[in-house]
Amino acid sequence: MAPAMAPIPVEKRLVATEFEANDLKGKSVKLSQYKGKVVILDFWATWCPPCKKGIPELMQLHAEHQKSGLEVIGLSLDDKGAAVVQPFVDKNAVNYTMLLIAPRGTVAQTYVPSGRIPTMHILDRQGRIAQTIVGLVPKETIAGIVRTLLEEKS
After folding, report:
1. Angle in degrees, 0-180, between the axes of helices 49-65 and 139-151, rounded to the nearest 10
2. Which label site among 49, 66, 116, 138 has the fewest CB atoms less than 10 Å from its CB?
């Protein structure tokens, strides 16, 4: 069994780059709106099987920890935007915020420089990147990081 993944030490964390993107209703959302919360930024696409496989686990984490201060934000890299993402969200009853970003735009280049998805960045309450995960990992790996960050005082 692989060792548990822990957050990056506080003193080594970098502040996440601010961005703005539209949700499925066209409303503009800024990352800074979530300061004070632990945030999972999940970069995914409807055409990516491992991305889709991880979404139910993110939905569970969101449901379990939202009241404690967790926000999950899905950032879709689908070229067709809401036309393909909205039906997916509806069909799967996704319970967290979904944003649309350009696959080759600034947000994607900043947060997914390798172009590999799923890519997840987990931010602490101060908006610093506490962990980056590329690829699909077990829910418990993510949950352990989230629980640690929710309990942090700084």
Report:
1. 40
2. 49
For residue 13, pLDDT beyond 90: yes
Q: What does the pLDDT look like over 104-117, one tens digit per residue?
A: 899 999 999 889 99
- Beta carbons within 8 Å of 24's beta carbon, 6+ residues apart: 82, 85, 86, 89, 98, 100
Is the residue at 1 inside a domain? no
Measured CA to CA, the distance from residue 130 to residue 145 in angstroms comes to 8
What is the per-residue pLDDT across 26-55, written as a single tens digit (0 to 9) for each?
999 999 999 999 999 999 999 999 999 999
149 three-class SS: helix
Query: Structural domain of residue 52, as residue ranges?
Result: 15-151
**Residue 131 covered by a domain:** yes
| pTM of the predicted protein model | 0.95
Distances (CA, A) of 150 to 31, 63, 68: 18, 14, 7
CATH number of 130's domain = 3.40.30.10
Domains in the chain, number: 1
Helix and strand numbers (H, E) in the chain are 4, 8
